[in-house]
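Here's what a typical entry looks like (Helix-turn-helix domain-containing protein):
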Amino acid sequence: MTETRRITDVATLKAMGHPLRVRLYGDLYMRGTATASQLAEGLDDGTAVSLVSYHLRKLAEHGLIEEAPREDGGDGRERWWRPAQESLRIDSADFRDSPEGAAAHTALARVIYEQRREHYLRFLEQRSGWSEEWQDASDASDFLVRATAAELKELTAELHAVVKRYQDKGRAAEAAGDGEGRETAAIHLYGFPFRP
């Protein structure tokens, strides 16, 4: 598994841009490994396993996911899948010279945003079910920064480095058997210019 894959071709960008594929990739990323049946159960909307399998194969065709070693010791009838990389990087700069690529990038960004929005709305609906400690640890902030384009890029890189440090810390703790009290926390960062 590679650490980070940068998507630079329009075909892969389009393959990733389907809402169900983004959801399946995200669910697979969260679980580490899963079968189509497990992912279909997690959707809670009656999506057929055959449709999930189809979309998983499309993600695999573009190298976004790969077959994983079996976890259940079963008879091999069902495939186990995992992300083919630890993270994906998709930069608008790689697609700005192609109208088709720019449109595909914007479409994928919208799908990803909508799914992040849904995650946060789900948290809001379920907040009372979390302990006070977790409720107090959650955050919803926004900031306005007067910056140059170079400064915004620098700020983004610094924020990514901080998040990566905590990802590494959590992985190391769990690898050492210290998973007590750990939950998956979603960190959504957006940095963009706008004029009021």
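The chain has two domains: 2-138, 141-196.

More examples are in the samples folder.
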